[in-house]
Design brief:
The termini are far apart. This protein is globular. Helix content is 36%, strand content 15%. A hairpin with a 2-residue loop joins strand 16 and strand 17. The strands form six sheets. It has a five-stranded mixed β-sheet with strand order 6-5-4-1-7. A three-stranded antiparallel β-sheet has the order 9-10-12, covered by helices on one side. The chain has a three-stranded antiparallel β-sheet with strand order 13-16-17. It is an alpha+beta fold and 487 residues long. Helix 11 runs antiparallel to helix 13 and helix 14 runs antiparallel to helix 15. The N terminus is likely disordered. The longest helix has 23 residues. It catalyses: Release of any N-terminal amino acid, including proline, that is linked to proline, even from a dipeptide or tripeptide. This is Xaa-Pro aminopeptidase. Belongs to the peptidase M24B family.
């Protein structure tokens, strides 16, 4: 017999699904005596002295701005659900950026609902309550408290997030009965979307998604502080890597990946994206995340990595380092060209400038060098007009940064790449040159060399601030820094 089969219905369990047993578990069922025993004898663990999360004032202001933008409409923003990795194991959960940005909460199955009122919206955060002790969920269910850890009670959640909390298991039914205009952020919770299927339109939902993306273009003081934390941890992660390059040479790029990941997990939530630990010709693959290749003295290591804080803000920094600590003459020539391009790009980051200005400035320097080296026929204006430099510098020179490594991606083109820089925006400046190993249009000695330099730049009232200035960039400074770390 099982608890789900034998326990009588109670008001708490009548509308809940039965607790599922694993098919091939060693215990075929639960006796009535054990079920009763497990219901009692537990201490009261309610947390009564909780303080609001540090960003509670900021999340409240964000919700107020959202409310003002969509008066009279019900707004539904889900956190998302667990995703299966294999069989009965799940990927680590990361809440949707939209939900975390507006609430500060990071738990699976959560949903923020703004219900329209005469003078704004009534806010409710729908969450799973503490796992049930009456029906055995807390010790029998794979997501029960004794298996995956304690959830906050709804009362605790209200204290932490400053939002009235309700049981999310009641939400789908309530949404099916809802009337009036509704918008939902799609792609995170199929059950919530199904409950709203006849009440929403793709066009209206996209407007909500775009607005929430554009809200994040300008960071508040809390966000800037978190980004600086992420960058500072990332700097330490790069130092960790330099100290173990000899061990990476003895193994593979994965030693570098694992070394940086340790720093990310110790000081933050995770890495903000798959670390690119690209040695030798792998540096020419822009998103090399297999990280299974050799690390050889004399080659370059392109390390593109960022720590993500506990509040989901991520750094995004790249350095291209000589594995043995010294650039060859040709490596230095290419590296210095990228450095000069980045210097030009960073100088163009200032309030009132066009977003595209830093990209154009960096690309001009790279095009000039390619013409100077005889790799492409000038003049430079012709090269830029036709985009001929892109054979060796494939990507844009940067992007917005925040809770997503490519933040604000759903923003309208006119407010992002065709927009104007404002104080509080944070973006990367990351020019690169990549000479593929099979590129017969360049001299043989160039082939297999890839260089990128990337920093995280805050637009200030009077210019910019390099959040990642703690990592050397100039080639001679990089060599001295590496020598110091290697002792």
């Amino acid at each position: 017999m099982t608890v789900a089969e034998e326990l009588p219905e109670t008001p708490e369990t009548a509308d809940e699904e039965p607790v599922k047993q694993r098919k091939n578990g060693l215990y075929p069922g639960v006796s009535d005596e054990l079920a009763e025993n497990m219901k009692s004898g537990w201490a009261d663990t309610e947390l009564r002295d909780l303080e609001p999360i540090p960003q509670a004032a900021e999340t409240a202001a964000r919700r107020a701005a959202l409310s003002a933008r969509f008066p009279g409409e019900r707004l539904v923003i889900p956190a998302g659900n667990l995703k299966t990795r294999s069989n009965d194991t799940e990927y680590p959960f990361r809440a949707s950026v939209e939900y975390a940005y507006l609430t500060g909460n990071q738990t699976e199955d959560g949903v923020l609902v703004l219900e329209p009122t005469a003078d704004g919206h009534k806010e409710t955060i729908y969450l799973l309550p503490r796992s049930n002790r009456e029906n055995g969920e807390f010790w029998l269910d794979g997501q029960g408290e004794l298996w995956v850890g304690r959830r906050h009670s709804l009362t605790e959640a209200e204290k932490r997030y400053g939002i009235p909390a309700s049981d999310v298991r009641e939400l789908a039914g309530a949404l099916r009965e809802a009337t009036g205009p509704v918008r939902v952020v799609r792609g995170y919770d199929a059950g919530i979307e199904e409950a709203l299927t006849d009440k929403v339109t793709a066009e209206r939902d996209e407007e909500l998604r775009v607005f929430l993306s554009e809200m994040r273009l300008v960071k508040d003081d809390f966000e800037i502080g978190e980004l600086q934390k992420a960058v500072d941890s990332t700097v330490r992660g790069f130092e960790d890597v330099v100290k173990v390059l000899d061990k990476a040479e003895a193994t593979s790029e994965r030693y570098i990946e694992g070394t940086f990941f340790l720093r990310a997990r110790v000081e933050g939530n995770d890495v903000g994206y798959g670390s690119i630990c690209a040695a030798g010709p792998h540096a020419c693959t822009l998103h090399w995340v297999r990280n299974d290749g050799p690390v050889r003295s004399g080659d370059l290591l392109l390390l593109d990595a960022g720590v993500e804080t506990h509040t989901y803000y991520t750094a995004d920094v790249t350095r291209t380092l000589p594995v043995n600590g010294r650039y060859t003459e040709l490596q230095k020539k290419i590296y210095d060209a990228v450095y000069d391009a980045q210097e030009a790009g960073i100088a163009a980051v200032k309030p009132g400038a066009k977003y595209r200005d830093f990209h154009d400035a960096a690309q001009r320097v790279l095009a000039e060098r390619l013409v100077e080296w005889g790799l492409v026929e000038g003049p430079v204006e012709r090269v830029l007009e036709l985009g001929l430099q892109r054979r060796w510098t494939l990507h844009g020179t940067g992007h917005m940064l925040g809770m997503d490594v490519h933040d604000c991606a759903a923003a309208r083109t006119e407010t992002y790449v065709d927009g104007t820089l404002e104080p509080g925006m944070v973006l990367t400046v990351e020019p690169g040159l990549y000479f593929q190993a099979d590129d017969l249009t360049v001299p043989e000695e160039y082939r297999g060399i890839g260089v990128r330099i990337e920093d995280d730049i805050l637009v200030t009232e009077d210019g910019n601030r390099n959040l990642s200035a703690g990592l050397p960039r100039r080639s001679d400074e990089v060599e001295a820094w590496m020598a110091g770390l290697k002792g």
